[in-house]
Amino acid sequence: MGWEETCSLDARDLSDVRYSISIRSSAGVRDPVDRRTGWQASRGRPAWWDLGGLFFPEFFNTLKVDANLVFGEWAELAAQVRERTLDVLAVGAGVPFPSFIELEAKEKVRYIAFDRDQISSLRLAMPELTPSRIPAGAYPSLLRPYETLGLYNFAIAHAELPDDLVYNVVRAVFENHEEMLEATAAAAATVPANLDRNSFLPLHPGAIRYYRQIGKAGQGD
């Protein structure tokens, strides 16, 4: 479906997919673009749920990082880090990520983050990304907040859907928040305030109608 044929129904966040890089403490790499030493980076097997596997190759390409990306199951990749055949685990996922916690239980690790200039370059190349943060203490070795990039999930619909239909879908989502929370804790972030996370998708007129109704004008007004 072409870009001009789609639009955002709402700013409904299913989860803030946050990107992070865990590295063996003994590895020589100091930041994601450290060119002083070669390194092997792993990413999960590509799948619809593995946004790290989809985005990290683009991250490294944009930043001109020469990294050897390795596919595999997360348990297998974590084992290779412990065996010193891999240096890094790079993931895009919810926090905390189980494989990071399991790795920390058996291996001393540290976390390397993109700096401000790198984050700016990545956002220019991929406007769907937004600033995000992993709080200190999310992992045992993470002693300070980890500034990174995130990717919110948005509901997408054809631009020609009737305005009334879209309005009622968006209204039903936000006005039944408690019921959604009973189904999944991720719905805690499914709130109109997260509309601001959408910086690149146009809003459907039906969605804009709802946001205006609740006093939060939508993008494209």
Task: Write a compact overview of the structure shown.
The protein is α+β, with helices and mostly antiparallel strands and 221 residues long. 30% of the residues lie in helices and 19% in strands.
Number of H/I helices: 7
Please compute the radius of gyration using only Cα atoms. Answer: 19 Å
Strand content: 15-25%
Number of strands: 9
Range of helix content: 25-40%
CATH topology of the largest domain: D-Maltodextrin-Binding Protein, domain 2
User: How would you name the oligomeric state of the polypeptide chains in this document?
Assistant: single chain
Task: Tell me about this structure.
This protein is α+β, with helices and mostly antiparallel strands. The chain folds into 2 domains: 3-13 and 153-213, D-Maltodextrin-Binding Protein, domain 2, CATH 3.40.190.10; 17-152, 3-Layer(aba) Sandwich (D-Maltodextrin-Binding Protein, domain 2). It contains 7 helices and 9 strands, in the order βββαβαβαβαβββααα. The protein has helices at 51-62, 74-82, 98-104, 116-125, 163-175, 177-183, 205-213; strands at 6-8, 16-24, 40-42, 68-70, 88-93, 109-112, 130-134, 146-152, 156-158. The strands form 2 sheets. Strands 2, 3, 4, 5, 6, 7 and 8 form a 7-stranded mixed sheet that branches. It has a two-stranded antiparallel sheet with strand order 1-9. β3, α1 and β4 form a beta-alpha-beta unit. α2 runs parallel beside α3. The longest helix is centred in the C-terminal third of the chain and has 13 residues, at 163-175. It is elongated, with a radius of gyration of 19 Å. Residues 1-14 and 35-51 have low confidence and may be disordered.
